[in-house]
Amino acid sequence: MPGRDPVAPLRAWLAEHAQYLRNPLPAGAGICMTCRGPAGSSFLRCIPCDKHFRAAPDSMADVVAPISYAHAHEQHMHDLRTYKWRTPPEISRSRLLSLLVVFLADHGRCLVEAAGGTAPSAAAVVPSTKGRPGLHPLRTLIGDRLGLPWLPLAPGARPDGQSRTFQRDRFGLNDRAREWVEGRTVLLIDDTWTTGSRIQSASHTLKAAGAAKVVAVVLGRRVNPVWDEWRPILQKVRDEPFRMDDCPFHIR
Ligand SMILES: [Zn+2]
Ligand SMILES: [Zn+2]
Prior knowledge:
8 helices; PRTase_dom; binds zinc ion; Rossmann fold; 252 residues; alpha/beta; 15% strand; four-stranded parallel beta sheet
């Protein structure tokens, strides 16, 4: 049917139920160009993103798109924690899945353009390094809705769940996947960005295997409200209604 928009009902549902979300601020003027967290006013990146960039400039994700800030004590962060419970609240799962599906439908093209790549032909979630058995809850949540094959990214030989630093060997890919990923654009998805070290370590694994581009999408950019640097950001976004039409690469 011409003009039919398959995600319209989800978008409408989110518009009504997800006003606790906060659009990330545009890069620049104290906002990190990678993660949209606080950066010094004369710096392009925050300290962790700058460290990752210096450690492996060619391995970083080509674009990072946090969909919303996630204040440590508010609803979005609550959803990002509870959807991983053994018996997760259905409402948390619904909200996160709707948000991701609508965001990718509306802004997937913006991200690919910003990355300068072709449309993704594979997807991956950043694996858990906490030894949780079975599929990652994010992969279970998304299922086959993206219409892309999932790459079997896995914890590396020396997984270190606690470390918040970039590690080249934190994750691995089997030989078959390494061969297959060559030249492809990969959509890399994670639930929460805190320092970004896990996502960037995963991006390194994909690029070291030959991926042409890595487009990273995170559901929530964690905000630590007790950290002074976040205060100006929180003040700016606190009363702003969430705009589904915006993404970090496509601002009204
Ligand atoms: Zn950053
Ligand atoms: Zn966009």
